[in-house]
Amino acid sequence: MIILAVFSFQGGKASQVDTTVVLYNSAKIGVVEKTLELELKEGMNEVPLEELAGLNIAEVTIRPLDEGVRVLGVFSRGQGGDVYGANVGSEVEVKLRSGDTVTGKFLGFKNGKIAIEGDGYYLINPNEVVYFKAKNLEGKASVYAVLGAEKAGKYNVSIIYRVANMSWESRYKLYIGDNAKLYGYIVLNNPTAQKFRDAKVLLVAGDVQLYQPQPRVLYAMAGKGTGEVNVGQPEKVEAFYLYKLGVVDINPASKMMYPYISFEAPFDREYLYESWPYSREGPVYESISFKTEKVLPAGIVEIYRETDDGSLFIGERAIEHTPEGETLRIGIGRDYDLKGSTVVLEERHDDHYAYYKVKITLENFGNETKTVVIRHHKWGKLLTSSVQPIDETANYVEFKVTVNPGEKKEIVFDYENRY
Q: How far apart are CA 18 and CA 12, in angstroms?
């Protein structure tokens, strides 16, 4: 059933005062909050919200910011003929200010009143109606809010809604020379027809759970200049990091890229084998590691090796969210003398529970002794291990082993995840 308000509405005029757009790097949505100044007449007012046409109005929230105004609901109209005429003969439900509910067949209007035939014949004054539910909702395609004002005047309200497929992501460029030079960029993506002028943009880094994930949108560079905003260190809010991008214009069907991280740090060379909770053989990569000076949201790192003839692109890797001061390890090239393998020895699943027992083997076919960092991606907590880990997070555990020429090393560990 779609809720349809049946009143003798008076139009409300709106002017935008402020707009905030919140984007997420783990969910392809934008959450928009606008403060509107409405000029309302006394009584019921129908306020058009045409920019919301086509959106899910179940995800729209309107809150009054001033006394003397109340929100009766947000409604949508489809396309077709007269709104009320489409429901003549349909079963409807009408709730009155008195708290009574009338159900029955909608017969249309008689002498300006709503005529309903149910367990009796009813003529209802529209001014006494709180809501009117009907199956068919036709008429001009639009979205509108119904507001009640105690007296005529200007009122401020906040409107919050979602826009699917808007997003942001991090893109990094790493230059390897005497030191590691890391540059980070924020990429804003708005593939929709929505446009926002002078919007305050907030960027949330963290895992936001939705019932249905949005499709991934690939990175591309924008044509707009990148020197107009200054992104500082993030603010910790609940389990998320919040970046304040500043005030920018977000145009429809556009992408923009802004620099926000730049630092240089000494690095160590290591070897890195990455594994996941399934059996496989995989390469071991030469890697570099360095301490991060800033929080690094998850993203893609383009890797360049600095040479006398210029910067040579040698590949790209994905990194996970890395807190400030943590050690970041990035594989930069395959080492063919080393080979790794992962075998899941035991796996159990139950209601909100998972258990894994894993064996990882490293072999050195070369002539040099090499130290390898093993990073196993997981969810949950490590229980036991044949080798002491050097680091553990909720998403991975790391071990470090030294493998001599012709030698084979094994690590056996288990972990569980309760969710």
A: 18
